[in-house]
Inverse folding.
């Protein structure tokens, strides 16, 4: 029997209902405590490329997979800050490509001020 739009295994209405249900759950899935900010200019890191930065953590693209707690440096233009962060999640995005979500730990007041300047 040749393929026709009527011969699909899953009816379009069911697929549309599943997508609509998933969209309605998005506000509840995001457990972020603070907002994130994507940069107009680049922020650099010892571990890889900084994708976005928030007061609570950072997302990095790296060629290596990371585990546990990391101490690393973030910098942009005239601001430089050394921070400690624990790995919250990792995702393999390709061959030797990883995205890593990290949560900052043990930040001092000076670190918070420097991170705020980095995010501006």
């Amino acid at each position: 029997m040749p393929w026709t739009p009527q011969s699909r295994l899953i009816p379009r209405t069911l697929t549309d209902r599943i997508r609509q249900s998933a969209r309605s759950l998005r506000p509840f899935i995001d457990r972020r405590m603070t907002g994130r900010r994507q940069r107009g200019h680049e922020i650099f890191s010892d571990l890889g490329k900084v994708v976005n930065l928030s007061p609570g953590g950072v997302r990095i693209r790296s060629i290596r997979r990371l585990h546990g707690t990391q101490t690393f440096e973030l910098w942009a233009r005239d601001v430089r800050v050394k921070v400690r962060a624990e790995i919250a999640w990792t995702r393999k995005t390709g061959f030797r490509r990883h995205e890593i979500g990290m949560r900052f730990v043990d930040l001092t007041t000076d670190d918070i001020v420097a991170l705020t300047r980095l995010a501006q």
Remarks:
- The domain at 44-119 is CATH 2.40.10.220 (Thrombin, subunit H).
- The chain is about 25% helix and 40% strand.
